[in-house]
Each structure stands twice: as C-alpha cells, then as structure tokens.
Amino acid sequence: MSRGPWHVAVLMGGWSAERPVSLSSGEGVAKALESRGHKVTRIDMDRDVAARLAEAKADVVFNALHGVPGEDGTVQGMMDLMGLTYTHSGLATSVIAIDKQLTKQALVPHGIPMPGGHIVSSESLFEADPLPRPYVVKPVNEGSSVGVAIVTQDGNYGSPIGRDVEGPWLHFDELLAEPYIRGRELTTAVLGDEALLVTELRPKSGFYDFDAKYTDGMTEHVCPAEIPEEIGQACKAIALRAHQLLGCKGASRSDFRWDDNQGVEGLFLLEVNTQPGMTPLSLVPEQAAKLGIDYAELVERIVEDALQGARGAKHG
C-alpha cells in the first residue's frame, strides 16, 4: 500500500486523568508524521470535536486519546457515525477492554490466565475487607494505573479502610478488588498480528503507578526482560491471543504480573490497553525500536493498518 502522503488528523488531549500523557503522545505522533511528509491537523479534543473532525476532512484520524471518553468506545462510536477511518480498536473492542471485569469475562473462558476478584462498592470497604489482605483495588475502567491501591496487612489505609484516607474509594463508587500477586511487572506490545518483546518494569520505589509510568527516571525498563524463555514465550502468546480475541486493531499492550516463584503458573494478564502511550517514555515505541522499527515507521504502520482495514471493509 502506498505510504501517502496522507492527511492525518491527530486527536489528543481530552479531559480524562490521562490528558497530559495524551497530549505528549499526540504531539510525538504529529511530528513523526510531518517528518515523513504527511499533512497533519492537530485536534485537542473538546465538546466540539465532531465539528472539528468534519472540518478537517482528513484521510484518517490517529486516535491518541487515553482514558475515557477516548478509549472506552464513546469517541469510536462518534467516528463510526461520521464515517471516519481511525486508528486502533473499534467501538465494541474498546467498550470491553476499558472495563477490567468485561475483559475477564471475554478472555478467561478462552484459557487466558487473569486474577480472580470481583466488583465492590467503595462504601463497603469502610466496613470490611472484600478479600484477605494483601489485595488490590482499582477503578473498573481507568488506565495507566490511575487510582490503584495495594491494601496490605501493615499498610497505612487502616483496618478497615478509613473514610478519611486518600485512595480510589474517595473518587469512585465501585472498584475492582483482586488478590495481590507478588512478583514482577511485565508488559508485551502487539503490532498488527505480531507480539513484539517483553519488558520488565522495575519502579525505583513503590509500584508501577501513574507517576512511575510517566516521570522520567522513576522506572527502569529492562527490554528485553531478563526472564526464562518459557515465560517470555508465554507473555507473547497470551498478549497476541488476547489482542485477537478482543478484536484489537493497530497496536495494543498487555500488562502482566509474574510470581517468579511459581513458573508459568504464576503468570497473570492484568489488562489489555487498546491505545497504548506513544510518549518518549512509552513501552510500545521502545519495544519497536529494539526490533529496528523507528518511531516514525511505527506511527506509519499504525496509520496504514487503519487505512487497510477501511479499504477491506469497503470491498468486503
């Protein structure tokens, strides 16, 4: 397929907790496309986004939004109604993948290993623990480790959790409670129909939360991860299978916890990110670069995937 030149509308920003990350991703994408001779229209999403997309009359929209409503199917549904071609996953996939509980319901019956757990009301946490400690509580539909809390036996949240203690229970009515899996943080990117590499994330302190992800120097990325061959192969196989089962398009990233005392039995998929970050610190560009795919090439491949999908749909 010809590589353009294309006119690409880069959709970024929005109003989720991940707005700064999205702006960084979007600007990186825009500059990369311009460096390859493509025309770019930058759109910082506001409530008039549909009108601005219509005015742009671009060949394709690069969806660089993160979080709600850019990653949960809302924006995808709007662009479907407008007949626009856009990168990354479509409406149904986005609705499922942003919701950690729906993701489990879609993947676990197919043999994908994911932690147990259930949805709890935040109010109930002030009365009793939903699971034996240690356990994790997290919002059902936020990405980038926004609002994740690890509740330990000797932690400072109280027992039961105090109503006046900062945590996701003060900001969300419902949370997903899961058993805490000790061990190591791994992640695998999928591009098209290929799992790339496995990266181990080693936070300098605490755990791999939002700040650790997006603050330079707070997390060491070991890529490729220094793990047994069978664990690396399992990560890639699970990531690719989850990408396919959910119907992801373009790039996705699967995050894992691995209890290294348990071998393959200790490997659990936590979530699938349908619109992984494209910032200078992001994991998908880093893995691609290790395989000889530079940033601009990666961006073009994602756009190309969207254009080919649209062409296939018209002729299908």
TrEMBL record:
<keyword id="KW-0573">Peptidoglycan synthesis</keyword>
<dbReference type="Pfam" id="PF07478">
    <property type="entry name" value="Dala_Dala_lig_C"/>
</dbReference>
<keyword id="KW-0963">Cytoplasm</keyword>
<dbReference type="InterPro" id="IPR016185">
    <property type="entry name" value="PreATP-grasp_dom_sf"/>
</dbReference>
<comment type="function">
    <text>Cell wall formation.</text>
</comment>
<keyword id="KW-0479">Metal-binding</keyword>
<feature type="binding site">
    <location>
        <position position="271"/>
    </location>
    <ligand>
        <name>Mg(2+) 1</name>
    </ligand>
</feature>
<keyword id="KW-0067">ATP-binding</keyword>
<comment type="pathway">
    <text>Cell wall biogenesis; peptidoglycan biosynthesis.</text>
</comment>
<comment type="similarity">
    <text>Belongs to the D-alanine--D-alanine ligase family.</text>
</comment>
<feature type="binding site">
    <location>
        <position position="255"/>
    </location>
    <ligand>
        <name>Mg(2+) 1</name>
    </ligand>
</feature>
<feature type="active site">
    <location>
        <position position="282"/>
    </location>
</feature>
<keyword id="KW-0436">Ligase</keyword>
<dbReference type="InterPro" id="IPR011127">
    <property type="entry name" value="Dala_Dala_lig_N"/>
</dbReference>
<feature type="binding site">
    <location>
        <position position="271"/>
    </location>
    <ligand>
        <name>Mg(2+) 2</name>
    </ligand>
</feature>
<dbReference type="GO" id="GO:0071555">
    <property type="term" value="P:cell wall organization"/>
</dbReference>
<dbReference type="GO" id="GO:0008716">
    <property type="term" value="F:D-alanine-D-alanine ligase activity"/>
</dbReference>
<feature type="domain" description="ATP-grasp">
    <location>
        <begin position="104"/>
        <end position="304"/>
    </location>
</feature>
<protein>
    <recommendedName>
        <fullName>D-alanine--D-alanine ligase</fullName>
        <ecNumber>6.3.2.4</ecNumber>
    </recommendedName>
</protein>
<keyword id="KW-0547">Nucleotide-binding</keyword>
<dbReference type="InterPro" id="IPR011761">
    <property type="entry name" value="ATP-grasp"/>
</dbReference>
<dbReference type="Pfam" id="PF01820">
    <property type="entry name" value="Dala_Dala_lig_N"/>
</dbReference>
<keyword id="KW-0464">Manganese</keyword>
<dbReference type="InterPro" id="IPR000291">
    <property type="entry name" value="D-Ala_lig_Van_CS"/>
</dbReference>
<dbReference type="InterPro" id="IPR013815">
    <property type="entry name" value="ATP_grasp_subdomain_1"/>
</dbReference>
<feature type="binding site">
    <location>
        <position position="273"/>
    </location>
    <ligand>
        <name>Mg(2+) 2</name>
    </ligand>
</feature>
<feature type="active site">
    <location>
        <position position="144"/>
    </location>
</feature>
<feature type="active site">
    <location>
        <position position="18"/>
    </location>
</feature>
<dbReference type="GO" id="GO:0008360">
    <property type="term" value="P:regulation of cell shape"/>
</dbReference>
<keyword id="KW-0133">Cell shape</keyword>
<dbReference type="InterPro" id="IPR011095">
    <property type="entry name" value="Dala_Dala_lig_C"/>
</dbReference>
<keyword id="KW-0460">Magnesium</keyword>
<dbReference type="GO" id="GO:0009252">
    <property type="term" value="P:peptidoglycan biosynthetic process"/>
</dbReference>
<dbReference type="GO" id="GO:0005737">
    <property type="term" value="C:cytoplasm"/>
</dbReference>
<dbReference type="GO" id="GO:0005524">
    <property type="term" value="F:ATP binding"/>
</dbReference>
<keyword id="KW-0961">Cell wall biogenesis/degradation</keyword>
<dbReference type="GO" id="GO:0046872">
    <property type="term" value="F:metal ion binding"/>
</dbReference>
<dbReference type="InterPro" id="IPR005905">
    <property type="entry name" value="D_ala_D_ala"/>
</dbReference>
